[in-house]
Amino acid sequence: MFVSDIIEIIEEWAPLEYSEDFDNVGLLTGDPKSNCTGVLITLDTIESIIDEAIKNKCNLIVSFHPIIFSSLKKISKSDYVQKTIYKAIQNNISIYAIHTSLDNHKYGVNHKIAEKLNLINTEILLPKNDTLRKLIVNVPESNEDDLLKALHDAGAGILGNYENCSFSIEGKGTFKGNELSNPNIGDPEKKTSIVEKQIQLVFQKHHESRILKTLFKNHPYESVAYDILNLNNLNPDIGMGVFGSLKKSLSENDFIELLKKTFKTPLVRHSKLLGKPIKKVALLGGSGSFAINSAIKKQADVFLTSDLKYHNFFMAENKIVLMDIGHYESEQYTKNLIFDFLKEKLSSFAVVLSSINTNPVNYS
């Protein structure tokens, strides 16, 4: 199995198209065509992780955070980033970062946090737009069902909790081929009229090449008339954060104790406690201050995130309680999420969960 085969599996699960523009995801170092001897899963890639990969004979590291985030002008082992990259290249170890591709997954980073808190009735806090496409295509009435089935099987027509979704309109299609045409219906150089159905299906944009390949393979016409439209609709299946509810309301102090126990942290930084029960919870793993106003609009009782700055806490304005559990703490279960996925997909392959705690923050 090649490194590229593992990457294909990962990117079908967490497509690069859904990562944020500021991010640096995908294969950061290594040859995608090299044979893969094993995969090491980690939250961060640092020098000790490279040593762990060498020890476990893994030449591919799948890391949540990218070790290369800003531009590198040299690799001289002068800091922890350069030392890590140098050792990886020296030992022919590939590094793949998944980061915001998984942040924006419906069942990704934030779903895992919600799962740990046993939240119910969850939805994405910040759904993304520009991730949906619509296919509009005309097809002879007699071929409609077969084409729809093929397109549905390829991933088109899924809307939230519904699948096999489509819309069709009946009309009359006309065409006339030239002397070089080879029509499946009608004769060359003779105008043909036929009852057609115009079918419309929505699909996730990362499936576009597959959808078009399926369309051309299963459509009876030599030249297929179709449109692909970019939709600006918010996508309820792609985006950051989670909004949901606790099964039972907790006092603010009991909720803080739940966070300490669940995320193994000795402290929780928070804004002013309001003396109200906690029921509705908004959360976003990692640095999530940009979602404070969205959590307030959702009328959440609490917003759970990390890396809040001094002035961020003023934004609570007695409307919500902001709670910061730490960056590592909020994302610590992500490597288990990646490991479980790859272990299921590669049941007979060496997939290793890193045993190293990469949290650089200590508490006294």
What does this structure look like?
- This protein is α/β, with parallel strands linked by helices and 364 residues long.
- It has 3 domains: 3-101 and 333-353, 3-Layer(aba) Sandwich (Udp-n-acetylmuramoylalanyl-d-glutamate--2,6- Diaminopimelate Ligase, Chain: A, domain 1), CATH 3.40.1390; 109-127 and 238-325, 3-Layer(aba) Sandwich (Udp-n-acetylmuramoylalanyl-d-glutamate--2,6- Diaminopimelate Ligase, Chain: A, domain 1); 130-233, 2-Layer Sandwich (Alpha-Beta Plaits).
- It contains 11 helices and 15 strands.
- It has helices at 3-13, 47-55, 80-90, 99-103, 109-116, 144-153, 208-218, 252-263, 292-297, 327-331, 334-345, and strands at residues 26-29, 39-42, 60-63, 94-97, 120-128, 132-140, 167-175, 192-204, 226-231, 235-250, 269-270, 278-287, 302-306, 321-324, 351-353.
- Helix 3 (80-90) links the parallel strand 3 and strand 4 (94-97).
- Helix 6 runs antiparallel to helix 7 (208-218).
- The mean pLDDT is 96.
